[in-house]
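Q: Convert this sequence to structure tokens.
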Amino acid sequence: MPRFGRQPWSISATRSRHSPGLFNSGRTTSLILKISLLLIHVVIVGFLFLFDEQLIRKTRSEPWYTAIYLALFAATLVQYFYTSCSTPGYVLDAMTAYNDTHHAFLSISKSSEKSAPSLVQSSISSMDGRPSWKNKSGTLTTAWVKQLMDLYPSGTSTRSWICAYCQTLRPPRAHHCADCDKCILKFDHHCIWLGTCIGQGNHCRFWWYIFEETVLCIWTAILYICFFRAIVEREWWQNGIAIILSAILLLCLIFLLSILIFHCYLILTNQTSYELIRRHRIPYLREIPEWEHPFSKGICRNLYDFCCSRNSLCAMEPVPTRDDQEERSHITYVN
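A:
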């Protein structure tokens, strides 16, 4: 077993101590972007309810229409802040959860096998002859190391397990985020507008936010089209502001539709943005042809895993062997 060098908490502490302004600057930028996004929503929607006489009349005659629209508006903002405050799934948290589960099992084994305490103690101090490693709280991580060995193909270099930045022992599909300064499970990307990473723990929430935002933009665009088509005399500055806001809305809609379609493709093929873009930099994906999706289990299973397995920190996928990939390809071809 290789030496792991300095522990992850010491690396992070050192980086934080030498560059405290970097993290404060990141928080400030994130706060500014959140306020800006909130203002964009309020200004674009508020303009219609202030100056669109047709919408104002419709609100009085058919209040349910406006109520549904405002409910979608509120739900979108709630989903935004909910996703922004969610955890993407940190590797260190998964390590702690896995080791706690393993130690709980060992504790039960101790109480039920009092006649053989030395055997249990031996399994704690060493597993399969491998030396144990301790994390910040002093908890043994032998169970975590064994789990990682089961996830990577035999013969994989242990260097690919260890993060070069925080020295964390990470499973496949995990990656270190420079903005969060942590390793993220099933890392997708760091969203500057949300101020957090998108990973295994919040990718589904992120998709729902993008979906709600896209629907809201389409509905708002329809309201602006009705605003311009209405034969009503207005001040010149009202038309000017409406044109500017419509242009901003159109750009946002194009951007959101692109993201929504792109992430639908990623979900159906069980990929991440990082894996798709940086595939040649990932050792266990480098030799696989680009048209193959090694982690894909079929559209239905991919959708199920994406929607139902995201909250489990211990739900980690092993790297499929070449035989597994050929078997999946054969099944897909036959079907």
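The two ends are 43 Å apart (CA to CA).
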